[in-house]
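Annotated sample (chain length 447).
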Amino acid sequence: MGLTGLDIYKLLPKTNCGECGPPTCLAFAMALAAGKASLETCPHVSEQAKDALGAAAAPPIRLVKVGGLGGAAEVELGDEQVIFRHEKTFYHPTAVAVEVGDDLADAALKEKLNYLKGLTFERVGLSYRIDLVAPTYRSGSPERFGQVAALAADSGLALVLVAEDPAAQARALEAVGGRRPLIYAATLANLDAMAELARKHNSPLAVRGDDLDKTAALAEKLAGLGLKDLVVDSGARAQADVLADLTQVRRLAIKRRFRPLGYPAIAFPRAEDPLAEMMEASLYVGKYASVVVVSHAEREHLLPLLTWRQNVYTDPQKPIQVEPKLYAVGKVTPESPFYVTTNFSLTYYTVEGEVAASKVPAYILPVNTEGTSVLTAWASGKFSAESIAEAIAASGVADQVKHREVILPGYVAVLSGKLEEASGWKVAVGPREASGIPSYIKARVAS
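Output written by the structure step:
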């Protein structure tokens, strides 16, 4: 358990200077105990007090970094402050790892690793990809496991080395050349050997007990040995049990400041059907895994999982936006149509897709509405005749087209008269839904 506000207050200088933000040392102590303040903001705290307050000042869930050395990408896990994202926000998206068994033949192994290395998705202006490769010990040969780990390291992705045999882990850790993989997993049977490997190679270590209580006890013992970068696994594999344990870990860490479970959590979906596995993985992304390790890697299965992850970890107060500037779709000419919309990413890319589908090249100007959709932005005054007119003037579109006509979304047709007055452009009212753009523009061209 973390220190209470009164425990912390006893160690503070009690100057009530207010330089830390709160007006009194007691208020600062309460904020510190709740995880809403940082000890570094107090200019008068002594070094002795810093040492004593270190645990209380630490985040409820430790930030653990995997990779980042030897050419491997870095993945940050944990460091979450809340249970529900509307309370503040979530910071570090669940890392998705794909298993690569060391029992694969060389040709199949290289093919899969090359596939994973190039596996990227583009959606609404964002690039999605998996985060980790998880070489998995199935061959029974530590030497083979080391070979597979070395090949996986060449992918440039961070690694999770899945083997409970210390000899296999030792061979793999030597083979990956200091890339700081996540070692999975320390158990009651191999705790000392795995702890020594984690210390020797400066790698984070996953710990797995038979249940949540035993996992907490093992994590506490490892922390006592000086290992701080831990990832926890309760050992549950049934979906309902995993969900319950992940939720308990998050609640105990944040609500109770229970340090033995104040670490990122890892989960292993186990459904054999790929769609069922992704559904299970999606559940763990929402509540509250920091890493999910899946066995299937088909594009059509991973894309929904990665899209869901993006939705969960998008700050609800900061929607995904595109840069509010003039875009050309297709081989535009001075006679090309000119559309306006908002800079909410999903809105813009929906419009862009329909414009491209119409086969009529056009210009699109997303007005800066702070990432809100057309009707939401209009209702809040962010998509007004004045703001649209200012955006048109600043975009330089007048230098790109000979005509002076702008196509306005049909849902805000009410703005057409004021927009003509404010901009000096003729306003054509387009379809309400972006799906109507192809038929709308083809009818205009035909006429």
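Annotation: The first strand starts at residue 64 and ends at 67.
Annotation: Residues 86 and 316 are 7 Å apart (CA to CA).
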